[in-house]
Amino acid sequence: MRPVSLAVLALAELIGTAAAQPMIRAPAATDTLAIVTHVDVLPDHMTAARDALAAYVRAARGEPGALRVEAMQEVRQNHFDLVETWRDEAAWRAHQASAASLELRRTVGPWLGSPIDERIGTPLG
Hints:
This protein is an alpha+beta fold and 125 residues long. It contains 4 helices and 4 strands, in the order H-E-H-E-E-H-H-E. The chain is 42% helix and 23% strand.
């Protein structure tokens, strides 16, 4: 019977210690959207794709709600990444229908080596 009561006391101690610890707060809710898009083009179209992406970045940066728009060329030079942050979903959806967004997809579409990979998230903090 004694080992059981020691186990109960130890458990009570652990629960009390855990209850006394401050709770980890969840990140503040945000409407901001972070978009990371990977674009893989056929090597023969690398230079034209780079130019199209640069034009897209210049145009998208001027759109309402654009907080960050950048393009990067990977070490594998026919692979590119777009990193974008939009004020909220409405701004991002309006951007998706913008001339810059539609033109980029129309232009690079025939040059793709694989489908565009677009990841949508919210900043953690």
